[in-house]
Amino acid sequence: MYFCMQMMRDKKSITFIVNPISGNHSKDDIPGMIADGIDSNSFDVTVRMTEHKGHATDIARQCADDGVDVVVAVGGDGTVNEVARSLTHTNTALGIIPCGSGNGLARHLCIPLNPRKAISIINQCQIESFDYGVINDIPFFCTCGMGFDAFISLKFAEAGKRGPITYVENVLKEGLKYQPETYEVEDETGARRYNAFLIACANASQYGNNAYIAPHATMKDGMMDVIIMEPFTALEAPQISIDLFNKTLTKNSKIKTFQARSIHIHRHDAGAIHYDGDPLMTDSDIEVHIEPLGIRIVTNPEGIEDTCQPNPLLNAFSDLFNNINNVREDIEKSGRKIQAINKLMLRKLSKL
């Protein structure tokens, strides 16, 4: 840990890479916010706009080659991934101004979602080294996964609207149709077989939108959290969704977890995987590992990693569904009642 201002008196070079189409809001005012908010006595500033997918990776790579001190990704998790992958194992630090729909890495690192407040964090320029992951030679910084995990990434990308409610809707609507697969997972301790809806590998705690797939994950332990989600019924789907947002997923009976430095996964057929929410088709064998402390990131001095507590309102909903066994038979006989429960939960979540 160190503060840039304490290391040398010279100005730092900083480049902001802005994705103009990420998230739901225009980025037209971002250059003005940067000009007004950044400390011009401490930084020489360049602002670049991306023009196509992958452009942020090219710009960031050139910045790292040129010895730029900080490169800031202005966009969502996809933009952050594009920028960060070019900065691994370099002296150039990653900064984040979260402007996407999920903002998983920013949330995990307690980076403010308000752009002006995020710029104030960058001005403090506190830099830490963090782990990142690699799936089939592709870097990821929050999560990667396969099965239902990757399927939902495809559905989320195709959705006409973004946000936590869209995510929950897709989990509830599509999860009951999705057919689980058999996976052989091998780590340092041996190989095990699982019949699973999804396997997720988490470097950070959440997908984004405060959906916590690995609530206890930290980016500083050299380990990934591996999450196995077993098949679930219509009655169990609302509880899983609640647990995602309540940081209690690891307590759910349908979830198996363990930690590993690297794993090999074999499935019967080729299919989709995702890295930080971006889906990709790949073959039946998948390699995932962690690169310890391989990326330097500008952090929030007041909260380097998320330590938020569970939501008390969602705790109440969790109790409701955990105690619903008293009417299980009636509910299972009535698809309308299941739909009513799902709709009630969505209405309550939309008010959070």
What does this protein look like?
There is one protein chain. By secondary structure, the chain is an alpha+beta fold. The chain has helices spanning 4-7, 30-37, 55-65, 77-84, 104-108, 115-124, 148-158, 164-175, 237-246, 312-322, 328-332, 335-350; strands spanning 2-3, 12-18, 43-49, 70-75, 93-98, 126-135, 138-140, 143-147, 181-187, 190-196, 198-202, 206-208, 211-212, 224-229, 255-260, 262-267, 271-275, 278-282, 285-299. The strands form 4 sheets. Strands 1, 6, 7, 9, 10, 16 and 19 form a 7-stranded antiparallel beta sheet that branches. Helix 8 (164-175) packs antiparallel against helix 12 (335-350) and helix 9 runs antiparallel to helix 10. The two termini are 35 Å apart. Mean pLDDT is 84; it is low at 312-335.
List its salient traits.
352 residues; alpha+beta; seven-stranded antiparallel β-sheet; 12 helices; 19 strands; 32% helix
Topology:
Layout: E1 2-3, H1 4-7, E2 12-18, H2 30-37, E3 43-49, H3 55-65, E4 70-75, H4 77-84, E5 93-98, H5 104-108, H6 115-124, E6 126-135, E7 138-140, E8 143-147, H7 148-158, H8 164-175, E9 181-187, E10 190-196, E11 198-202, E12 206-208, E13 211-212, E14 224-229, H9 237-246, E15 255-260, E16 262-267, E17 271-275, E18 278-282, E19 285-299, H10 312-322, H11 328-332, H12 335-350
Parallel strand pairs: 2-3, 2-4, 4-5
Antiparallel strand pairs: 1-6, 6-7, 6-19, 8-11, 8-17, 9-10, 9-16, 11-14, 12-13, 14-15, 16-19, 17-18
Low-confidence stretches: 312-335
Strand content: 25-35%
- Count of separate DSSP helical elements: 12
* Total strand segments: 19
